[in-house]
């Protein structure tokens, strides 16, 4: 009994801080977005985003959510979820918007992780090539979303009448006081939190229990035959294995190898292979809890499958390009 209680306490100690952090991001991001709508600011931001959404046959307001992702992935996704639940977007249109989110979700990590952390570890040359490769992959996925929207979406996938309430709340049409607008935004944000956070708590608890109970690291055993076939140095195996579980530690492992072991191309290819294998781990640790929390299990699974398939395809193509013998 004591052992079970100790395990439960350890599990909660891991889950509660994660849940608190993601809840704070959701609360802050959704509240800011709702305040922007309440004060009519969404119309001005949406105009800037129109160049992205119009070729994809999406309303300009969806571009606001996409651009918001550059500041907060959680806020951007939560806003898209609101649009979907309001009936503005059907499932196909929402998936296109999610794909278009990719590059803007990457942008925030450039300033919070890649530049201050990863480039100093890898060195300027290897670090810049790696970050450039990841940026190019993210941008191509976003462009794929724009093209897919242009080809697959029409007016039948978007109910623009759902924007009536947003259009009616411009500064000249809204006689609410500033305090009333902020209070209404807070009430809407609270409704979003009540819907998402309980689901998020259940999924996070389950996922963390699975990760701590079973040996996820065993998944990296597939790395060795891959590196052998691709002609990477033997030192790539531990780099890939560690990078699979922790990107910072994997980068440090690569940086600790003897000078001349890796070229910039083989180093970046090794890290990208590690990122491919890490999808299995990150799906359990982050994607499932996050996406299920935002969308629910059914649509969340679709988002995970589409995101993962596109990332695997473009990362694999990039690895093939880096290791092409014509270089």
UniProtKB/TrEMBL annotation:
Transmembrane domains' residue ranges: 22-42, 62-81, 93-115, 135-153, 196-216, 267-284, 304-324
Taking the record's annotation, the residue ranges forming a coiled coil are none
The record's section on PANTHER family has: GATE DOMAIN-CONTAINING PROTEIN, NUCLEOSIDE TRANSPORTER_FEOB GTPASE GATE DOMAIN-CONTAINING PROTEIN
Q: What is this protein called?
A: Nucleoside recognition
Q: Which residues form the signal peptide?
A: none
What InterPro entries does its record include?
Answer: MJ0871-like
Recite the UniProt keywords alphabetically: Membrane, Transmembrane, Transmembrane helix
């Amino acid at each position: 009994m004591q052992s079970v209680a100790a395990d439960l306490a350890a599990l909660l100690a891991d889950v509660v801080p994660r849940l608190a952090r993601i809840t704070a991001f959701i609360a802050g991001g959704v509240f800011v977005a709702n305040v922007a709508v309440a004060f009519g600011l969404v119309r001005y931001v949406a105009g800037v985003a129109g160049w992205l959404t119009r070729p994809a046959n999406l309303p300009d307001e969806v571009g606001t959510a996409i651009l918001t992702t550059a500041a907060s992935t959680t806020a951007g996704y939560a806003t898209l979820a609101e649009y979907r639940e309001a009936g503005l977007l059907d499932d196909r249109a929402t998936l296109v918007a999610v794909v278009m989110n990719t590059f803007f979700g990457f942008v925030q990590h450039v300033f919070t992780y890649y530049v201050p952390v990863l480039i100093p570890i890898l060195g300027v040359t290897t670090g810049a090539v790696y970050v450039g490769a990841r940026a190019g992959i993210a941008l191509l996925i976003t462009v794929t979303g724009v093209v897919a929207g242009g080809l697959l979406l029409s007016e039948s996938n978007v109910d623009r009448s759902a924007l009536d309430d947003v259009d009616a709340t411009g500064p000249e049409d809204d006689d609410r006081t500033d305090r009333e607008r902020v209070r209404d935004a807070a009430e809407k944000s609270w409704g979003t939190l009540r819907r998402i956070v309980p689901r998020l708590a259940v999924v996070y608890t389950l996922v963390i229990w699975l990760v701590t109970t079973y040996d996820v690291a065993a998944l990296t055993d597939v790395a060795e035959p891959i590196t052998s076939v691709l002609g990477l140095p033997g030192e790539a195996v531990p780099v890939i294995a560690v990078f699979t579980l922790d990107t910072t530690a994997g980068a440090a492992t690569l940086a600790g190898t003897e000078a001349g072991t890796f070229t910039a191309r083989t180093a970046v290819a090794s890290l990208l292979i590690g990122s491919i294998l890490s999808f299995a781990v990150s799906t359990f640790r982050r994607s499932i809890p996050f996406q299920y929390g935002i969308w629910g299990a059914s649509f969340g699974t679709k988002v995970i499958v589409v995101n993962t398939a596109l990332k695997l395809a473009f990362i694999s193509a990039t690895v093939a390009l880096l290791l092409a013998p014509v270089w």
